[in-house]
Protein 1
Amino acid sequence: MFPKSRGARLKEMITPSIREGLQTKGYQLVGSHSAVKRCRWVLSSLRRHGGCYKHTFYGIESHRCMEATTSVACANRCTFCWRGSTHPNALKWGSFEADDPRWLVQQMVDKHLAKIIKPLKGAQVDDKSFSEALQPRHVALSLVGEPVMYPKMGEFLRAIHTPPYMVVTNGQHPEELANLPQVTQLYISIDASNAEELKKAGEMIVLRQIDRPLFKDYWERLLSSLKAAAEKKEKQRK
């Protein structure tokens, strides 16, 4: 069905129940661990009603942007996550399948065009913008899960022939973050100002957890990720 990594007892990250949950929410699944989905700004841009902040600040056209992830799994169980319980949790890649990065890029683009862009033809969209949308020029790895968990992330980014691309991470994988090649925009989610607030909502009565991280050293990992981002010398937005 799709390229498999060599190794013993490898398993697919997207189980049948996870597949059903994500598909119900509109995710277009790719391979054994990835997905694409339509951002609401795509249709807005196709109708020339405006784009997202990336267009306002950086000139990136929303109708030429593909929102994706290379890993639907995440090491946090954030209370504010709108995906609910539809995606898996994992500390590391471990025994998951790892699809070929070049194949993954092509499959993402193909599914983005077939399932997201082409069905919008005739939906009161601008003809010129629609033609442009058939040639994506930006990849936003910010969809669901933790994209930097994917062990072939560097190869994946290098296989994208038309940067810019942005990467959003929760800062729980500092080594993988440090090894990332240059990206146009790098975001690290910081959901509270200190370790206790990051784990609890701050109200002593409620004691609601915020990120609900799986890692016990979640705060140290976040600080290490911030340090790794600061030490990157490439010209990129952070």
Protein 2
Amino acid sequence: MPTLPRAAFSVLSCRLISAVGQRGATTSCRAFHAISQKAAVAHPITAHGPPPKAPSPAPEFGRLSEEGKDVNDAGKPQSQVSKPSSTLEKRFWKNVDVRKKPDGEYQVLLDTRPIRTPTKDILSIPSTKPHLAHAIALEWDVMTSARQALKNHLIPLTSLTARGGDIAQEDARGETTTRDQIVKLAMRYLDTDTLLCWVPERNPYAGEESEEHGERPESLREAQMRVAKDIIAFLGTKVWPGVDIVPILDADSILPVSQPRATKDIIKQWVSSLRPHDLAALERGIVASKSLLVAVRLVVEWSENFRHLQRSGQKKFGIEEAAEASSLEVRWQTDMWGEVEDTHDVDKEDLRRQLGSVIVVVSGETRE
């Protein structure tokens, strides 16, 4: 068998590999194009006139010249544009006055414009509440800007009076939407009334605490029972005679105990029959004190519509008494452990502000 030279064998091998590679490329490779086969169409120019100018920066971002003046890209000084001041940052009225209308109701005027409610209605104060009108005027007279009128904690009397006016307008139209909402709120708070939530009794095996003089201090449960029984006794004899009000927390359970059905029906009917301003004040008192019973006692004690139930010659149930009844547990804990600055002290003053607005709104000059 003839033997091929080594050089010829290497040349033949290279040709064979090249032929096989070309055959595989023709069968498995495809053309790949990055440019569309369709040529682009040049549309006609429809714009007329010179090209637009280059954008220039806003006046507040203009460049400063060597003299310290704002200049544009062309080097010309730019006109100073003053930033418009918000009308809410200043007080747009000078004087606050109280005007009595021919029908006897009062209006509070900012110069010559009456104060309006969030529903754009003129705020009207009943003829039997002149002190309320002057108190609302004082709220607006101490303001330094219109923005303060948007904060409810600065206008407690204005907002509460507007709420009572809205209820009165609904009553005139024969609607009960707001009344039904407040009644539902009141009955829901009755199921978890703060006044009726007492701490469990002391463990009989726990040691007795004593002061320096050997006397045992009043426990939290005893203080809660003392305050609650006084309010319950007043409501059970003056407001809802014969109604049985029971504590809502059992010693062996964390779930509240519901009041008797007869008690709920009587309280619900009484709340739904209140006058508009008394109902609005009751709502705020409930939300502030977390207690329906405390709010009812406060409203009955000061409302002009319950003169026949108020005790003459005796100390009234006022702001301090209502605040103590609704925050007895918090005060007991802060006396033991101390207050948290900007928390307990702020809540304490805010509670008294809201309870005070309840007293001012329900009071009046109506006699028996």
Protein 3
Amino acid sequence: MGVQAIHPAPLHGEEEVGPPPPPPLRRRRLSPLLLITLNSGRHVSSLRTIDSILSVFDNRTDPSPLFVESRISSSAPPPPTPRAPRIAYLVSGSKGDLDRLWRTLRALYHPLNQYVVHLDLEAPAAERLELLARVGDEPVFAKVGNVHVISKANMVTYRGPTMVANTLHACAVLLRKSKDWDWFINLSASDYPLVTQDDILHAFSSLPRNLNFVEHTSRLGWKEGQRAKPLIIDPGLYKSKKSDVLWMTQRRELPTAFQLFTGSAWVVLSREFVEYCVWGWDNLPRTLLMYYTNFISSPEGYFQTVICNVLDFATTAVNHDLHYISWDNPPKQHPHNLNINDTAKMVRSEAPFARKFKRDDPVLDKIDLDLLGRSNGSFVPGGWCAGEPLCSDVVDEPGWLKPGPGAERLQRLLKRIVWSNKFVQNQCLAWVVPSRAFMEYCVWGWDNLPRTLLMYYTNFISSPEGYFQTIICNVLDFATTAVNHNIHYISWDNPPKQHPHNLNINDMAEMWPLSRANSKGMT
């Protein structure tokens, strides 16, 4: 006897209800995988069955997510921690500099950075080949691949434009070798670090990546007559043997198409500014490179004049070269050679670099031991170091930094020169015509500074030469708008007297080119 389904009798007043009708057919889009699965099943034979399966998804009341991925919190992940900055170094030397260049390179090394090392054409071929061999034989350099030797050496003349050309060459190589660096620093074999690379990278992590550390001034002083007006030729441009620059009998006047600036030859440049100098999407970097071809000590003026004549970059210039250098007063051509008696002054300067040092001077051993924690020519210990002996290998994550006391010193220096009013007061912007917003501030003075300074300058001789300047440079909102030029042609004695010259028809030749240059720049 077969099994018979038994249905309960309907209650009084109820109609007998048959099987529920199938749900209405709805047009559905199925993935090819789902269609194949459904149509290949033995018990799935109709669209009704397909719809009944899909209705499980449509009509489920379980609020819990079906897929495990949905159970993961959909809140946005925390923002990534800013990566440690990377620095691209040029370390250059000449004849007899192989060993101290090698020492400086090892004291500067960090796997995150990039390095170009260059011994110029005056160095014997044996020294240049030895440098190439040392870099190739160093296991850490070989593993990381971030030390590059300029094999086709340049002739570099001291005080000549070939020094600038060599620096730009290194910049171009570094731009091509790596897209992953933030600042360029040029050093010589007679420079030495006073802090570890972990210290520098840690301290620079808090800085805007567009800052440029370029010591600069538009007050040429004695350099106007001894640097800007003489004409020289650098034999390194066309000779294969080094010789001193050639002096021409002719002299030239100061340029009127741009303003000259001077400063230190040692710079820390942002990648953005380096790209501008090398690629030059307007013509100023190339124009100035040609102008400085006949300029004595051009490394002390080229980058300063470029950055201070381009408004986009002038506001990024920090007036410091991050070096401790001991000069005579007034400065001579060369600074003092530092020795062990200068150690305390170097540390107090809080600068990350110092120069200049004699080869293997005992002070370098003291810096290694006391400031860098380095001995026996090893690398400077840092968060990247692994292996036995220490720093003979690189950890998997070399971005982990171990800053020490040097980072604290450098951060104090950066606080003084970047995170203070000194930064905006020392910018090298170039003209001054007060804007309406600034004049409203001076007249209405919604804080009390304009009135305070007005009273202060009541007892100040020649107060018109200082009142507006002092206001604008002490108010951060306006200091970044100040351009260092008064849009006037004025003829002064040198040094200036109380009054300028009265101009006459003989001054037209001087006034006319300047007025054309100024009007062209203002349009």
Protein 4
Amino acid sequence: MCSSTKRTQHGIFISMETRIEQKSRAQGSNSHFTFVLLLQIFPFLCTMAFSSVGRKKMAGHAAFLLVDIIVLALAARVNQFQDFFYVADIFPLALSIISLVFVVTLTALDFALVNSYTARPQSEIGIFGVLSIFWLAFNAFSTSRWRLVPLQCDSIPSDFLDERHWCKDLQALKSFVWINFLICFGITLFTLRYAISQYNRGNKHVFQMPLSRYQPDLNVNNDGLSFYGGRGSEFLQFEKLT
């Protein structure tokens, strides 16, 4: 939102600054200094809000968490029926818990910290990439063990209602574990592709700040936070005035 209205706001600021400068000549320079200071704070406040790509990233995380919770619930029911005996059933349960802890922690840190290192593209690519590998490997193992379970669960005699419900839960689990892998792998590819494309365009600060607050036209200081725009920013104009 901040980047989309930047030109309009810039024009308004210049007009307001001109009028205030005229008044400040008669009333002193304090008001002009205060207004210019506010101009420097405004871009910083923009970085506090999530950018467009940041909102897309959060939507991907939310989708992953939703499917992961479904996998966790289904895996818990399947394992409860089997008394947590089969490894093929335990893998989705354990991995869904690990994924839930990691992604919730990443999201919480991203909300809590303006410059969270774990929210930078290189960190998320590594974390979701490793999770994708584990989901792929464990899904392949579990699916191969589930091949003997009948696809038509209604073919199980009605006298075995518990077994029929278990069969349906297992078939649903078989589908959702692969959906979870696809979302996780998709997040990895999207983050990798976007970060590399921005870096190749000369926006090297894409790896120096959280992707949720990344904007191509931001400049980054040593702390990874943006306080000013390009070469024609108000900050440099203020330096010339002083």
